[in-house]
Amino acid sequence: MRLIWGMALVATAVSGCVKEAPVSGKRLFAENCAACHGEKGQGDGPFAENLFMPPSDLTVLSENNGGTFPRNYVISTMDGYARGEHFSGAMPEFGVKLLGEDVILETGEGVVTPTPQPLVALANYLESLQGQGS
Ligand code: HEC
Question: Which residue has the higher pLDDT, 32 or 133?
Fold first, then answer.
């Protein structure tokens, strides 16, 4: 009997560690980005007028990149890891705040790198916004 209880406890402890459901990119965007970039990513969020630099229109990222969604650029822009030198600092860095479970991301040419799942979800969501601007 004691053994059975012990096994039940172990099972409970293990299931408690099962990772949470992946976060939705849409929700993350609404919570962390829309204030500046606008609900639809067009750079017209309510907070935009307080910034010294207008937030980018995120529906034209592919268009500005010769038709290809610049996934790596978007992810490094969010976490501040490899921002271009022109970058103003008007946008906060999200790496630490959004840090979640790492997933393995293929960054091209067979290179893979562990990337926090929320950043990947956000990048996927931004990709879905491409060409959706008015
Ligand atoms: C406090 C306002 C603010 C918030 C919040 C914010 N951004 Fe930004 N973002 C900016 C500004 C301003 C720029 C333009 C900065 C520059 O070019 O110097 C920018 C630029 C970007 C760029 C680069 C676009 C380009 O064309 O080069 C991406 C991608 C981006 N933001 C994504 C996001 C995502 C995703 C979030 C949410 C996780 C977010 N931003 C939250 C203000 C914000």
Answer: 32
The whole-model pTM stands at 0.80
Lining ligand 1 with CB less than 6 A are: 32-33, 35-37, 47, 51, 53, 55-56, 58, 61, 74, 77-78, 87-88, 90-92, 94, 122
Chain position carrying tokens 């790596």:
72
Query: Mean pLDDT in the chain?
Result: 80
CATH number at residue 119: 1.10.760.10
Taking the centre of ligand 1 as the mean of its atom positions, its distance from the CA of residue 59, in whole angstroms, is 12
Average pLDDT of span 108-120: 80
What domain count does the chain have? 1
Buried b (16+ CB within 10 A) or exposed e, 23-34: bebeebbeebbb
